[in-house]
Amino acid sequence: MSIRLRLTAWYTCILAVTLVLFGSAVYGVVHFYTLSKVKANLEEQSKLIQPNLVLNISRGKFTIDIDGISATSGFQSSQIFGQLYDYNNDRNLVTENLQMLKKTFPVPAAKNAFKSQPFQTIKLNGNPFMVYQQPVTLQNQLIGFLQLGVWIGHEMDLLNLLRSILITSATIMLIMATTFGLFLARKSMAPIGKVIEAASQIQNGSDLSVRIAYDGPQDEIGQLINTVNSMLGRMEGFYKNLEESYAAQRRFVSDASHELRTPLTTIRGNVDLLQKMWSKDASERPNLDEETMHEMSLEAVSDIADESKRMSRLVGDMLSLARADTGRTFEKEPVPLEILVEEVARRANMLPRTAEWITGDFSILNGIYINGNKDYMQQMLFIFIENAFKYTPEGQVMFDAFIYKNQVGIRISDTGIGMDKEEVPYIFDRFYRADQSRGVTEGIGLGLSIAKWIIDELQGSVEVVTRLGEGTTFVIWLPIVYPTPLE
């Protein structure tokens, strides 16, 4: 059974019980009030009527017989039907109006006379009578049984009409309540049907963009729909993030496989060459003199060493990014920035390059501290500097710093090959390399991804300004922990 039907059934049952109790109370009050007036009238009339007693002497014995009924003034002889039963002579003395009915009220046996109820409803020829009855005694001896009745046809018709009205009206009200209750329940539960429909669409089509339209009041149903819509929005966001993560993961695995395939192929080729050159089987060795084979072996070993170093860097970078993906961070402490950048500038001067290396005045960083990690900050700066050297075959690479609004900006600019502006949003993606440099310069495309992770961990940001053929400038913004002391 649906919720609509259950709600309607409960509502109808509660209303039915209420109507039955209310109708019973109304009918009981009217019934009691109407018949109470009749009973009170009969009791008053019973005081106005007396049996006529006669003393008979027979063979020295005295007996008391009932010779009739006498009534005083005020007795309603036309409305009251009287009957006096004589137990001694086993006869009924009745009033004229009762004689016309040719019926008498039933009389209890003498032994049950005192047990009879004072009021009793009796039907004679289909006519209802309210009968008041009491035993007649003399010196505690039962001699008769007096019964006074009044016709209560009008009262019973009124009570029957009232009962019919109550039953009919209650039935009509129940039918109307059931109909309107079902309508209201269906209207109230219609938004729930929309929720079910939306859930079915999502289940069948995986469309998390579906939302439930609702313009009703913000009651429990409205709050439920708002909650479901919010949940769908969050699920859609999570699902999109999950799809992007899966796509990034697939792309990462594909690119990593591609990057690892090249050094592995080179290593495998050189190993095969070395195996052939130094094989014990003379038929497999190439027809070369020993000096040439020695030179070729040194070249093969050098290639193997270079590719091994490249693979080591790749694995190290991938481990750093895997640490970033798991949410792991590094320990931080206040780092004096002037000492760090001067050390980076000195060590960068020893890197292989073809461009001119120019450093600025770092004395402005005196007393400036960054909440970070020295090793990771050096790694991040060397990534940008090595990239600048790599993509600047001739020209200049400049390294300086400045302070602006409680932040320090570390600038690495070059006059190298530059990039298209459309490529800037993607340069921090893993394994991404600009098209014009792919295959021309070495690299695996993970350095800037690692640098961006370190900058994010330092709660900083990076700004990129580039122009194709003119060079690129990176500005790394880091928040200052301790500003320069006042002199």
Mean pLDDT equals 80
In N-to-C order, the SSE pattern is: HEEEEHEEEHHHEHEEHEEHEE
Rounded to the nearest angstrom, the radius of gyration is 57 Å
Any low-confidence stretches, pLDDT <50, length ≥5? 435-441
Please tell me what the overall shape is.
Answer: rod-shaped
The helical percent reads 40-55%
The first-to-last residue Cα distance is 84 Å
Largest sheet composition: 5 strands, antiparallel
Structural notes for this entry:
The protein is an alpha+beta fold. Helices cover 49% and strands 22% of the residues. The chain is built from eight helices and 14 strands. It has helices at 3-46, 96-101, 153-205, 220-277, 290-325, 337-348, 374-390, 447-457, and strands at residues 49-58, 61-71, 80-86, 91-94, 119-124, 127-138, 141-151, 333-336, 356-359, 369-372, 396-404, 407-414, 461-467, 471-479. The strands form four sheets. It has a five-stranded antiparallel sheet. Strands 9-11-12-14-13 form a five-stranded mixed sheet. α1 runs antiparallel to α3 (153-205) and α7 runs antiparallel to α8 (447-457). The longest helix has 58 residues, at 220-277.
